[in-house]
Specification:
The protein is an all-alpha fold. The chain has helices spanning 2-15, 18-36, 44-52, 56-60, 66-98, 102-120, 144-153, 159-173, 176-199, 201-213, 215-235, 237-250. The chain is 77% helix and 0% strand. The mean pLDDT is 78.
Length: 256
């Protein structure tokens, strides 16, 4: 009981810190925007068929096996989450060593996040290049986590900017643990829709087609969010909001 209470307390302190309360929704939305981007949505049916070992016909005609679809999708999400969360912990640890220079760091990260936001909107041509591995693991459940890892380390013009912005916030969190939790929120935003689409494949196709018709709006909204976060970091308002949230949280207790 003592160990469980200690773990719960540590997790509560991590998630309910002012910086995390402000950054977690941004990370979650960034993950969702990444999923809805033109680099990911068109590939979702192919990814689902590949990681489950089921053909498009099997997925579309109702003969799919729900357990296999859930497991394959989960393993794929687990693969790229392992990569992203590890990076989040790494960047958070870097930020912990640099927190004595927090004001300068915020401004540097702010500029970086603004550039990434503009890149996501397609306004920085040099960051629109895509890197992928051409040698893929075998299709099916065994290859699903490996494909997830390859997906995580590959650069796409849509995932790169949003993930880079989240990792900038991980540095700003000044803690390896907070960086990992922050990146986990991004992975949930990116991964949960993938699993939901896999489960509801036939019904989700129509929704994906709607998303495709509004790609430009999604990229503008997602990039705009990153630019706003960058401006907040540069102006110092991010730190002001964090301080206000911390004061509020310090006077609040939970039942966890």
């Amino acid at each position: 009981m003592t160990v469980s209470a200690s773990i719960a307390s540590t997790f509560q302190d991590t998630v309910l810190s002012g910086s995390m309360v402000l950054a977690l929704p941004v990370a979650l939305i960034a993950g969702l925007v990444s999923f809805l981007s033109p680099c990911v949505v068109p590939l979702v049916p192919g990814y689902i068929g590949y990681v489950t070992g089921l053909s498009g016909v099997d997925l579309d005609d109702g003969r799919r096996r729900a357990g296999r679809v859930v497991l394959g999708s989960f393993l794929f999400v687990l693969g790229f989450s392992a990569v992203f969360v590890s990076l989040g912990a790494l960047f958070g640890g870097v930020g912990e060593n640099l927190k004595a220079h927090v004001d300068v760091l915020d401004r540097i990260l702010g500029v970086f996040v603004i550039v990434l936001g503009l890149a996501f909107m397609g306004m920085v041509p040099g960051l629109q290049r895509e890197f992928r591995f051409h040698r893929l693991p075998a299709a099916g459940l065994a290859g699903a986590p490996v494909l997830g890892v390859l997906f995580g380390v590959g650069w796409t013009p849509c995932i790169g900017p949003t993930l880079g912005a989240v990792q900038s916030l991980a540095i700003d969190s000044s803690s390896a643990g907070r960086g990992a939790v922050l990146t986990l929120a991004y992975c949930l935003g990116l991964g949960i829709p993938f699993i939901v689409v896999a489960l509801l494949f036939r019904h989700a196709i129509g929704a994906l087609n709607v998303v495709k018709r509004h790609y430009r709006l999604i990229t503008l909204a997602g990039g705009g969010l990153l630019v706003v976060v960058g401006v907040l970091l540069i102006s110092g308002l991010w730190g002001t909001f964090v301080g206000q949230l911390q004061d509020t949280i310090n006077g609040y207790s939970t039942v966890v």
